[in-house]
Design a protein that fits this description.
The chain has 167 residues and is an alpha+beta fold. It has helices spanning 3-23, 44-49, 130-136, 152-166, and strands at residues 26-34, 37-41, 59-60, 63-64, 89-97, 102-112, 117-121, 147-149. It has a single domain (25-166), classed as Immunoglobulin-like. The protein is globular, with a radius of gyration of 18 Å.
């Protein structure tokens, strides 16, 4: 076998191994916090359903491999306006067990009780948590620094955890 064939094969094997390891990362905790609030999503199925890795930033051999509705975002293709400032902001922290210590991916979550709609914000460049987030997964400037509708599943799980913590 020549070097011209060996090097690409090795690179493909390394890339594939990285994808396999990335897919095996486990969300060990999902915490929701704000002044006067400390909540956790403890359901193992929910932690699996809300693994931070799905969505923009995922590629399969150089081709984007994500769906418009994925992770906790209803529609990545259509950012929305920032929810009213009067609505409380909650920090949603996804602790990812990487086998050699946990790392955190952090977003903001807002719930509008009148519209019965959740919103998710990914920190943008220069904002707190941006650098740590993009060191785990860079989604792109068209996503980071923007608000999106949260999926009904995420909204239901987050609101249930918040309500349980307030009881």
């Amino acid at each position: 076998m020549t070097w011209t064939k060996t090097i690409p094969n090795v690179l493909v094997a390394l890339f594939t191994a990285t994808l396999l390891v990335f897919g095996q990362r486990v969300i060990s905790r999902i915490t929701l916090s704000a002044p006067g609030l400390a909540a956790e999503i403890v359901d193992a199925k929910a932690r699996d359903d809300f693994r931070f890795g799905s969505g923009p930033g995922n590629f399969n051999f150089g081709t984007p491999s994500w769906q418009p509705k994925s992770w906790i975002v209803e529609d990545w293709a259509h950012p929305v306006a920032e929810p009213a400032q009067a609505l409380p902001r909650v920090r949603a922290t996804f602790s990812i067990d990487r086998g050699r210590g946990a790392r955190e991916y952090v977003v903001s979550y807002v719930y509008d009780p009148v519209a019965k709609q959740g919103f998710v914000y990914l920190p943008g460049k220069g904002e707190p948590f941006y650098d740590a987030n993009v060191s785990l997964l860079y989604r792109g400037e068209q996503f980071e620094g923007h608000w999106f509708h949260a999926t009904p599943e995420w909204t239901m799980a987050a609101q249930a955890a918040i309500e349980n913590a307030r009881k």
